[in-house]
User: Fold ATP-binding protein from Actinomycetospora aeridis.
Amino acid sequence: MQTPEPQQRDRSSTVTDPGAGSGGLAETPTPVEVRVHADPALIPSVRAVAADLAARADFDLDAVSDLRMAVDEACSALVPLAREGGQLRCGFAMAEGRIDVICRVPVTGEAALRQDTFGWRVLTTLTDDAQVLDADPEWLGIHLRKQRLNP
Assistant:
């Protein structure tokens, strides 16, 4: 009797189209996802996960720190816009010497994220790419990408 081979998960998942699939931004698949109540007091937990994942992916200390601060800034921008009782969801995908992060919150009405603020400038300085994800009317998010110096 032959034992079946264990299924291997594809660890090279990248977040290229956050709106793909039927779930839209609410159900964007990522290998690691943290869900917490949209409360500023819980942002340090998400920030710690980001730093840990970057360190485990052999990012240098400066890049780990940059990602930690960028995730903190993204979450801090999104939490005040979250629908009451909503969750802050942050997904992390590691591939080819980079980390993609999607932070998102459920919103009501015309919630918008301004890109002319000091906070947004910080995001674009600390990461290799930062984009607002607002195609789904019920969710608002930020996609961050940080590249390792030596992939």
Observations:
- Residues 69 and 125 are 11 Å apart (CA to CA).
- Residues 1-23 have pLDDT under 50 and may be disordered.
- The chain is about 25% helix and 25% strand.
- The first helix runs from residue 43 to 56.
